[in-house]
Amino acid sequence: MKILMLCNKSPWPKREGGPIAMHAMISGLLQAGHNVKVLAANTNKYTVDPETIPCDFKERTQIEFVNIDLSLSFSGALYNFLAGKSYHITRFHTRAFAQKITEVLQKETYDIIQLETLQMATYLDIIRKYSKAPVILRAHNIEHKIWQRIADNCSNPFKRIYLTHLYRALKRFEIGILNKMDGIVAITPVDARNFDRLSHSTNIISIPFGINLETLSEDPIQPEEASLFHIGTMNWFPNEESIKWLITEVWPMVLKRLPDIELHLAGRYMPDWLLKLSAPQVTVEGEVPDVWEYMQRFSIMVVPLFSGSGIRIKIVEAMAAGKAIITTAIGAEGINYENGQHLVIAKDARSFTEAIVKLCNDKALRDSLGKNARMLIAKEHDNNKLMQKLTDFYTELLQKK
After folding, report:
1. Which of 72, 98, 128, 263 has the fewest Cβ atoms nearer than 10 Å?
2. How far apart are CA 24 and CA 161, in angstroms?
3. Residue of 109, 120, 158, 157 whose CA lies nearest to 39
4. Topology match between the domains 2-210+382-400 and 214-380
5. What is the pLDDT of residues 135-169, one digit of tens each?
6. CATH architecture, range 214-380
């Protein structure tokens, strides 16, 4: 098949969950024998020098970029507020990107057009004008649910009014666009069920984030001493929220029982309050050059997530790395786990503390969780098998068209 993929960020480099998920799917589709063309936004939020893209990836995807400035402006925010539009979406709509889509579609005919994230759906009308191919939304999250949580938790009454507008406008756009898609590829079964409830579409499938274990080391390093780590992009509200809770609610209780334990925090866009943090036994490392190498240094991953949707890419990667993981039910969404066998689920500060203490004191349990986690990823997140499932889904859509 010839597939055109529109991306809200560059799928290279693999520095965040979104680009990692996009890169995994692109690589899997190419390996499965499909022809994939990539058109990506190059934004000030995730800027890429096209010259740094590996030659092989560049040649196989014929990747092209269009610069988009996502800087917030008062006039833009006010206009969208008064017009009842979603500023999250309209910021991605530019004349230059629309022209590039038109140029690409007039030059080539595609079997499938895949939109990576909701933001790219702003170009649906242009796509329909120049192509008869089925248009697929690959949703990394249910976007409006995240912003609903942010609005609900905002204590500033004036800011909350605006955030509530943002959430409601985004929800209207998201639900409206779902019913215009030829198919929806959700990243978790939970999201797929929610999309089914929100839309009239019958062409919905769940394809989780896939990993090619053949490219990873067969025997991940397991440190003898217990140590805790978290890694995630910190300009994503649910991540910042979770770390703030971990440090204020859980960490003091942990230190009372394990005074020598260390917590390491890594990720892009660390907020100032974290960079200036002086909490005992906490090291803020910021962005790291090699995530896989970073994970090998520690034994226990902590992900106290209480909002968001989709699948946590870093949890899947840590499971593939054979790490013991403590998270919440929301953090583990999209993973077919058994609590206590593949990872540990905690629901509040006390149960999180107990889980940390238990795993720190029991290396055999840490090793068992890590081994089982890796086996589960090999079974259910094999990228080659997932791409075959996606290919079958697309074949059925083409037969219906």
Report:
1. 72
2. 38
3. 120
4. yes
5. 999 999 999 988 888 888 788 888 888 889 999 99
6. 3-Layer(aba) Sandwich (3.40)
The answer to whether the Cα torsion of 8, 177, 399, 380 is positive or negative is positive
Residue entry with tokens 């090699």: 290
Domain ranges of the chain: 2-210+382-400, 214-380
292-308 burial, b if ≥16 CB within 10 A, otherwise e?
eebbbebbbbbbbbebb
Chain segment 215-264, per-residue pLDDT in tens: 666 666 678 789 999 999 998 888 999 999 999 999 999 999 999 999 99
Spatial contact of 38 and 26, defined as CB atoms under 8 Å apart: yes
**Alpha carbons 66 and 70: distance in angstroms, whole number:** 12
pTM of the model: 0.89
- Give the three-class secondary structure for 139: strand
Round to whole Å and give the CA distance between 199 and 176: 8
Using the Cα atoms of residue 150, residue 156, residue 161 and residue 162 in order, give the sign of their dihedral: negative
Q: Tokens for 57?
A: 């990836």
Helices (H), 123-188: 124-130, 143-153, 157-178
Q: Which helix (H) or strand (E) holds 64?
A: strand 64-68
Beta strand 135-139 with 2-7 is unpaired
To which residue do tokens 């022209």 refer?
Answer: 99
Domain 2-210+382-400 CATH class label: alpha beta
Strand order in the sheet with 228-231: 282-286, 263-266, 228-231, 300-303, 324-327, 344-345
Structure token pair of residue 300:
């226990």
